[in-house]
Write a structure and sequence with these properties.
Blueprint (H helix, E strand, L loop, with lengths): L1 H10 L4 H5 L1 H7 L8 H15 L3 H12 L19 H15 L13 H9 L3 H10 L1 H13 L5 H10 L6 H9 L7 H18 L6 H8 L18
Length: 236
């Protein structure tokens, strides 16, 4: 599903390849089948807006948005398991799911990184891809609401994913949760997280590699894919 591939690319860190392959991205928009013309227009405006800005500014805002605090993290299991031990096993299970679909990772990202998950879904038959989006729809809805709170245009991408999923997430419930939250991207909140991570780092020194790290190393070094393709034996 080309829509998922496009959104996956736009949710990745905006490196030089985004500008280098912009014509390829715009050309791919002519083949969209699973979103409305208005939604395709909004997707095109988002891409045009990003490409019209200075690259360093775009990269800085991206890092501030998705790498500061956990509320807008693109790691799916961050919003499900947090720091619990269940997260590690969930990672292993998801990696096995990718393997069964014939997807060989060439990325250093963890398997629950949303752009990678969308790459995986893009290779599946339409009904299975929609089912995969529905599985994470509550997370997508919450991320969309938080991004709108931060006045970020990236919220458009999450709304498009929810539209493709035909999601029926309770919007009022999402807003109630948002109202009870304390922003975790303030300087004070980030200082608290840094102190917590320092304590964990010194406590964990000397421990062996985790199962997740082992899996990452097993799949390192794969041949790099073309910009809008990944190495896979699955359907597209």
């Amino acid at each position: 599903m080309i829509e998922l591939k496009l959104i996956s690319r736009l949710l990745e860190y905006p490196d030089h390849a985004l500008w280098e392959h912009q014509r390829e991205l715009f050309d791919a928009m002519t083949g969209l089948e699973h979103i409305s013309k208005q939604e395709a227009h909004e997707l095109g405006l988002f891409l045009r807006d990003v490409l019209s800005q200075d690259r360093l500014d775009v990269q800085s805002r991206y890092s501030e948005l998705f790498d500061r605090g956990r509320a807008t993290s693109l790691l799916l299991f961050e919003h499900v398991h947090g720091e619990s031990r269940d997260r590690g096993q969930a990672m292993v299970d998801l990696m096995a799911q990718y393997e069964r679909a014939g997807l060989f990772l060439d990325s250093r990202e963890l398997p629950d990184h949303l752009p990678l998950y969308l790459e995986y879904l893009a290779q599946l038959p339409h009904s299975e891809a929609v089912g995969g989006l529905q599985d994470v729809a509550p997370i997508l809805a919450l991320l969309s609401a938080r991004l709108k709170q931060r006045e970020s245009r990236y919220a458009v991408l999450f709304d498009l994913l929810l539209s493709i999923a035909n999601s029926e997430v309770d919007a009022e419930k999402v807003q109630r949760q948002l109202a009870d939250e304390v922003r975790d991207d303030t300087p004070e909140a980030l200082d608290a997280v840094w102190e917590e991570e320092q304590v964990k780092f010194f406590a964990d020194q000397g421990c062996g590699d985790s199962a997740i790290t082992s899996h990452q190393r097993r799949f390192a070094g794969a041949v790099a894919p073309q910009y809008l393709n990944i190495t896979t034996g699955g359907q597209q």
